[in-house]
Amino acid sequence: MTLVQTQPRQASATPVHRTAADAMDTGGPQVCDDMTVEVALSVMASARTGHLLVCDNDGLCTGLLTQAQLTAARDSSAYTDRIQLRDILGDPGPFTRPVTPMAEAEHTMRHSQADALPVVDEHGSAPGVLAVAR
After folding, report:
1. Half-sphere exposure (Cβ direction) of 84: Cα atoms closer than 13 Å
2. Residue 88 is assigned to a structural domain of this protein
3. Mean pLDDT, the chain, as a whole number?
4. Edge-to-edge strands of the sheet including 30-32?
5. What pLDDT does residue 102 have?
6. Keyword set for this entry (predicted)?
7. Which among 21, 46, 98, 132 is least buried, having the fewest CB atoms inside 10 angstroms?
8. CA-CA-CA-CA torsion for 54, 60, 62, 64, nearest 10 degrees?
């Protein structure tokens, strides 16, 4: 599995000791869980990304939603334009910490069959996402 690295790193970083913080994408959109599905799909299209980090009103990461999940919610027979992201989040799924070794983060992604993994700090905020390169 190859992870995306979008932020340049210092040349002194040793690949053997890489952590999730070394490889996470910090530029992706974070949205509030009271956002509607249609608005979230629009944000995702504008950002040209396949996932959104979802946070609560306190800025704490509550999960990650993919385009496939949002599309499935929109296409369901129970869909209304008032459905918010918190209504479809369900289980928050796996997270990793910035200090987690890359080998462990990759194992978590393989085990959970996740294409993206939120990186959450000790305060519950998400400084970035690890994503599989496509």
Report:
1. 9
2. yes
3. 85
4. 30-32, 51-55, 61-66
5. 92
6. CBS domain
7. 46
8. 40
